[in-house]
Amino acid sequence: MKLQLEILLATALAIATVSVVIAQVPPEKQFRVLNEPSYAPYITEYDAGYRFLSSENQSFFTLPFQLMFYNTTPSAYVLALRVGSRRDLDYTRWIWDANRNNPVGDNSTLSLGRDGNLVLAELDGQIKWQTNTANKGVTGFKILPNGNMVLHDKNDKFIWQSFDYPTDTLLVGQSLKLNGVNKLVSRTSDVDGSDGPYSMVLGNKGLTMYVNKTGQPLAYGGWPSEDYRGTVTFTVRREFDNLTEPSAYELLLEPAPQQTTTNPGNNRRLLQSRPLGILSKVNYNCTISYLRLGSDGSLKAFSYFPAATYLEWEETFAFFSRNFVRPCGLPSFCGEFGYCSRGMCVGCPTPKGLFAWSEKCSAPKTTEFCGGKNKGKTVKYYKIVGVEHFNGPYVNDGQGPVSVNECKAKCDRDCKCLGYFYKEKDKKCLVAPLLGTLIKDANTSSIGYIKY
């Protein structure tokens, strides 16, 4: 019995030892690359400076995707994937960031060692980003033709993939998941790639776009539905006029497949423009496309056509557009504050009336009513007739029924309230901590009261 136990223990130890050896990254696939100055002559998004990665053991380029370092501010580099040929006359685009909130400096390193952990570290060894895949069976690294960057095992099974960690962009085949990363988060600006105020979140009640500049997220777009089955995927589908040649390509957002035996192919399309019934049709192979939540809160799709002699990228979908949701619905459309009508910024509301709009147009500052020498001062409002708040359609125009005086009292008591919007017909009240673009409403019983 003792001998049998010793044999079993020895066998288990041998198997474990062999497993560890097999799980290691072989020397010829290990790499360590330095973030150092290099010649980068071609234009890129955000006017970013960039540096190529080079290793004898590893390629970081799979046409048209490439892993690089880029920076928009001096000595603050982000490890990122871009898409587009090196010699495109149009911008090449950044479609995934590893360390967007934690940039590195000169002479930082990206390394894949024997244990299979992909690590981005400063010159002094401080780790700024990693895949946390040490001793999990990784044997190699590669960038797939669809733009997915993966660490895989000896059987080519993915141990880690960039598709599981979207930032502000979805590539074709990439998903948002309730049980994983469930949102896109915008950049702060074109020169600041850190997390911004806009997000698109997959939740139990749908796919919703939010703006959060005050600590309170406000919905401003999306697709309400409870039938997402936990996943939404950005995809391209070929449309055929006959059995052999595609006549067009359709850009779609799709939920997880319906698990039914009666109709297994029923997969409802979510990105639908009215009244066409589809998001967008493109007359070329647009399988290299991406959907991005912009730093201004816009949601747009761009498609790549490398055969074009000029302007290889085309905007193939815009959520805020005349074909989908009115452009005035974008909170940033008229800047910090502005009056929008039929897709145009037509005025700057003031206590003295509607003046010509400009980028300097801004809402009155109300913080003096929260404390200090003006504490207890009577709050004043000026009135704008026929106006709607961008958040109104997504919260059923606010709460009610309440009287206009009750609505005013709520805003009076809230120092973060910049104004309130009242629907006289339905007696609905919407208190606004953020104003942004105000939308002209033909219904004159929809009234805005702006605090000043």
Automatic annotation (TrEMBL):
Keywords: Disulfide bond, Glycoprotein, Signal. Residues 1-23 form the signal peptide. Residues 44-164 form the Bulb-type lectin domain. It comes from the Eukaryota. InterPro entries: Bulb-type_lectin_dom, Bulb-type_lectin_dom_sf, SLSG/EP1. It comes from Brassica rapa subsp. trilocularis. This is Bulb-type lectin domain-containing protein. The keyword Glycoprotein applies.
